[in-house]
Amino acid sequence: MARKSSRDRMTNEINAGAMADIAFLLLIFFLVTTTIVEDRGILVRLPPWSDEEPDITQLNERNVFSILVNAQNQLLVRGEPARVSDLRERAKEFIMNPLDDPTLAESPRRAIISLKNDRGTNYQTYLEIYNEIMGAYNELRDDLSRQLFGSIYENLNVDQRREIREEIPMIISEAEPTEFGDEG
Amino acid sequence: MSRFRKKRGKSSPAIQTASLPDIIFMLLFFFMVVTVLRDAEIIVQVTTPEATELTSLERKSLVNYIYIGRPVQRYQHIYGTSPRIQLGDAIREPHDIRFFIEEHRLRVPENQIPAITSSLRVDGQVTMGIVTDVKTELRKVEQYKVNYSARPRID
Q1: How far is CA A99 from CA A66, A71, A104, A168, in A?
Q2: CB–CB contact B55 A19 (8 Å)
Q3: β-strand partners of A34
């Protein structure tokens, strides 16, 4: 050993092959113990709790886009039966009112989406409806952003976003659900 | 010259394995970053609905999870078959949400409390009754930021 020349010592490397084994072990441990969480969803802001119900009857009827859902997951949009798939286009038309229809919203700032469901409504239906409303607003905001700033809403800076939000505020009012069809 | 030739002929040189750990470590770090530790045993069955307008939640430490769904087969003899609420790793009632949120607030710095998000992981087939009860409780404890967990829709 002592007679080993300096040249020999330099070519002697630390065997790093075992390091890979250790790293593999850790890797497998993390693979097994973790799950890739699909942490995505529809982000909403709930209204503060108050004991009395907000009274939407005082609002001008043309500014309210009412959606009722019963326990059979059927929709009633502004008094008429409707389908979820039509909701997005109808909401967009209602909010922007491009033809100045006197039955639709005066301006996007005044448009209110009113959503009322039953305790027996499926959560899936509820979320689909919510998704369509969010989709309508997102598309409108994107359109306006492109018009004003030449880029979609997501890419705007804070001030520009605020401007868009003031122009097209998202006002969704949820009434307390009716209690016809809840399961035990 | 002759010595040089002799050495080459003896055996083929070993493959350099020194960079192998680096590659593996890279993989390891990737998995460590993209995954979170499984925090709770799933007692209720949750299949979230599909949606298109999704936002991803960023800071995991500021998110708490509320599961709503029917108990899985293994726990049906204890908790029944109707939809229940799971907080952490136990079945709870709606009025327990208050403590659940308060407890989470204690764990985060004070200035970040308004950024706390409740992620509702609700089964698509559950009716709105129980979801409304949870929402009401959240509103009562002033926990307004809510995420309805959903899967991206593949068209």
Answers
A1: 20, 35, 9, 17
A2: no
A3: B37
